[in-house]
TrEMBL record:
Residues 1-29, 101-124 are annotated as: Disordered. Transmembrane segments: none annotated. PANTHER family: HTH-TYPE TRANSCRIPTIONAL REGULATOR (PTHR46797), METHYLPHOSPHONATE SYNTHASE (PTHR46797:SF1). Residues 13-28 have a biased composition (Basic and acidic residues). Residues 40-94 form the HTH cro/C1-type domain. PROSITE patterns: HTH_CROC1 (PS50943). This is Helix-turn-helix transcriptional regulator. It comes from the Bacteria. SMART domains: HTH_XRE. Keywords: DNA-binding.
Length: 124
């Protein structure tokens, strides 16, 4: 039996006492605004466009767009649509790419989580 095949034993009671959910890793999920910002930045760079160019097209400041791309501003849905329109990207594409990034495996220490945790419950 390889290490990957061995079940993981989790003491659910102690995790609940500590305020942690037993079915999640200990790292917080990334914020949606950060994910959307990364996607918008990637799309803008793929098109070889500058912050200034896209910001002018949308009618916002370059600084605000930069803050959006770094996940520091929580843009409204209208603002997200405007930036997507300026990039020629449907808003639905941004949302779908965000879902894929949220559900992608996240590294946890020495290994990467690639599916639901394998947990074996044991009576105490």
């Amino acid at each position: 039996m390889t290490a990957a095949d061995r079940p993981v034993v989790v003491d659910i009671a102690s995790r609940r006492r500590e305020g942690r959910r037993p079915d999640r890793d200990d790292r917080p999920a990334p914020l949606l605004r950060k994910i959307y910002g990364e996607i918008l930045r990637d799309e803008r760079r793929d098109q070889d466009r500058t912050l200034d160019d896209v910001a002018r097209t949308v009618g916002m400041s370059k600084q605000y767009l930069s803050e959006m791309e770094r996940g520091r501003k929580e843009p409204s849905s209208e603002m997200l649509r405007s930036v997507c329109d300026a990039l020629g990207m449907p808003l639905e594409n941004l949302l779908a790419r965000g879902v894929r990034r949220l559900s992608a495996p996240r590294p946890t220490g020495q290994h990467t989580v690639t599916g639901p945790p394998r947990v074996e419950l044991m009576a105490a």
